[in-house]
Amino acid sequence: MGIGQFAYANNSNRFLAAAELTDQRFALCGVPYDGAVTHRPGARFGPQEIRRASLMLCDGIHPLFGVSPLAHLGDAHDMRLPNASPLPQVRAQIEAQAAALMASHHCVFLGGDHSVTLPLLRAARARYGQLALIHFDAHCDTWQDHFGEPSGHGTWTYEALQEGLASPAHTVQIGLRSSGERAATGYVRDQGGLIFTARELRGIDGAALQPVIGRIRERIGERPCYLTLDIDCLDPAFAPGTGTPEPGGLTSSQVLTLLEELAPLNLIGMDCVEVAPAYDHAELTSLAAATLVWTYLCGQIAKSESGKLDHAA
Ligand SMILES: [Mn+2]
After folding, report:
1. Over 80: is that where the pLDDT of 168 sits?
2. Is residue 69 assigned to a domain?
3. Which pLDDT does position 5 carry in this prediction?
4. Is residue 140 within 8 Å of 183, Cβ to Cβ?
5. What's the 136 CA to ligand 1 centre distance in angstroms?
6. Residue 178 needs a FRET pair 20 to 30 A away by CA distance; which of 18, 74, 76, 121 works?
């Protein structure tokens, strides 16, 4: 299949209008797959909409980190993926393509539904060893099946811990609030990890988030850490365009503060998933996703340029 020849592998626009990927340190790649959702589909169209929204950010310097990602970032376009093949086959393709990118780049992936994170973690585990994991989400994603299906977009965290991809004690979930049985919603805490529910974070922002940030930094330490951000961690007021929205979520300000302050960690890659443009309004969700990804990239680039982050405590 050639470039731009299929609707959900839109390969003509690029994140921040960055150059195509060659030997840049940072790579961005779309994973346009949404065959494992339990509710509204559409996240396969996330990558192209996040890229489109990112164009508003393409011409300037980040207000905190003082850098632009443009000279350091290449866009690897979207993975070519089937959308209706058995999930293990799709995941094998994602893992192989991700491993090839991770071999020479610090990678950011745009989903796609959250089932894509499992093969991304498999590729990252093979390269970096067992990972610490920061997981922003309204949902625990530690269910053990989906209505009779063994794996989907809400089981990958359970599977990742079972497989030893991430260390349970170094797994941190932020923003959880959906309904679910206690065995699932408390699973990570039961395994020794940290959970900060949306309820626990209500009304806590800015400097008041420092105790939370301190606990996360202390827990993760210097371990190689993968960050996965389900856009539904945000309240639907900030991100309505997603498959399984859950009212009562985090604000853009809270998530930006957390991303800024966690930038000093030994982050080895991230994904932003579950942007489903068909349910969006005024590009709120795709613009939020683009801004969060841009913030991550600027934090990592500022760190690589200076060896440290000035704002870091
Ligand atoms: Mn979710």
Report:
1. yes
2. yes
3. 44
4. no
5. 8
6. 121
CA of 212 to the centre of ligand 1 (A): 21
Which CATH number do you get for residue 216? 3.40.800.10
Task: Inform me whether the pLDDT recorded for 82 exceeds 90.
Answer: no
Distance from residue 312's CA to the centre of ligand 1 (Å): 29
Give residue 127 CA to ligand 1 midpoint distance, Å: 26
123-144 tens-digit pLDDT: 999 999 999 999 999 999 999 9
% of the chain residues with pLDDT over 70: 94
Flag whether pLDDT at 2 surpasses 50.
no
CA 277–ligand 1 middle distance (angstroms): 15
**Residue 6 located in a structural domain:** no
pTM higher than 0.90, yes or no? yes
Residue 139 CA, ligand 1 centroid: distance in Å: 4
Residue 136 in tokens: 């922003």
Torsion over CA: 71, 227, 302, 249 (sign): positive
Asked if 261 and 211 touch (Cβ cutoff 8 Å), the reply is no
In the reported structure, the alpha carbon of residue 164 is separated from the centroid of ligand 1 by a whole-number distance in angstroms of 22
- Terminal CA-CA length for the chain: 48
Residue 312 has pLDDT above 60, yes or no: no
Distance 153 CA to ligand 1 centre (A): 8
Q: Is residue 15 part of a domain?
A: no
68 CA distance to ligand 1 middle (Å): 29
What mean pLDDT is predicted for residues 188-213? Answer: 98
Cβ-contact 46, 273 below 8 angstroms: yes
Q: Which domain holds residue 203?
A: 22-306
Query: What pLDDT is stored for residue 3 in this prediction?
Result: 44
| Number of domains observed in the structure of the chain | 1
